[in-house]
Amino acid sequence: MPTPPDGERRLGRQSPTIKSLRVQNRSAALTQLITDGSATRAEIAAANGLSSASATNIVGDLIAEGLIAETVLLASQGGRPTSLLEPVADGAYFIGADVGERGVAVEMFDLTMNRVDQEFRGGRFEESPDAIGRDLTDAVEALHLRNLGRWSRVVGVGLGLPGIVETDAAGAQTLYAESLGWPPVPVRPLLDHDLPLVAENGAKTQAKAEQWFGAARGVQHAVVALLGRGVGLGVIAGGEVYRGHASSASEWGHVSLDRTGPVCRCGRRGCVEAFLGAQAILDRWAELGGSFEGSGWGAIGKLLDAAEAGDAVAEQVVDEVVANLGVALGGLVNLYNPQRVIIGGWVGIRLMERLSERIESTAKAAALRRPAEQFTLLPCTFGGDTVAIGAAVMPLESLIAAPLAAEQSRAARSAG
Questions:
Q1: From CA 217, how far away is CA 306, in angstroms rounded?
Q2: What is the tens place of the pLDDT at every residue in 261-282?
Q3: H/E segment holding residue 179
Q4: What is the DSSP annotation of 77-114?
Q5: Most exposed among 96, 152, 203, 236, judged by the fewest C-beta atoms under 10 Å?
């Protein structure tokens, strides 16, 4: 998916699912309305290189599909008033799930990408893939029961998963979560429900959320880091989330900073995750004599509080975190020459709340001078919801790329 809104005109040309210019124009117009929130017919025509007649036809198709509506009349200078067009919130729904080794956060969004409901399962202990699947199915079913009147308009479910997600030639997806010690996990059986299902690595769905609606919107090149229990990365290159040969690109968390460093969950030494994952940070604090409870948001917050209060051990740990993160980010800047470096994940959010200036200066010092001058460091936009929002964008993209309802009807009649 190109970076909206600058990429609307490229959407149809690059997507193999779009069969006609009319469908391409529908996709571009719907993308514009969802990302901008509203537009007039003239604005749709101008943004997408359409004639007034083509824009009017596309708008008519989208109104007929129940996806957009005329909301208010705007005064014009001479001539008839102009109608403002907006997405119909109730026109379609999307489910996005942030799936981790300790449970799931499942969120439901309407066509304006406002969250209308959410459900959580698990969260305290590491679980098996089968248990995660039960969590996911139970959470989706809970949403179903609370949203019976909306359910027929749910387009599908997107999953942000903790590992590499590969798709075979038949479209079947498999999760490879080596660092969790899981065997290869077929994705479809994780959800015992008949909704369409698509999955991607959680760091890539975070990047997708930032690209569509957040800090990476409107830029062609960005890196979006996820720091949590694990460490991941989404790379936006040329307006697209970069996946590599088989979707395992940008596994930054398992790039080694020190071949003699601490052992990572993947079994190798000195990985970025072995220095910057939540457990790695807290283990280092405990090793140096720190005292704390838990292994989550509160424990990382206590570390930062102690450092700010002048605790020498906590200060040392935070200094090491900033130094290691700066070096790791500086390497990304040299590799990708991003316009923006965006930090998310719950650990990343905590660090950016207190240490953003130090992190930026350290990253710039670790990078070559010229690319260091060309990026801005930003926090992710949506906090803990970012992975789920990006996961929900995947079924949204399937709606945007879908054939026109009229064309589907004609195709069905021809087939009959």
A1: 36
A2: 999 999 999 999 999 999 999 9
A3: none
A4: SSSSPEEEEEE-GGG-EEEEEEEETTEEEEEEEETT--
A5: 152
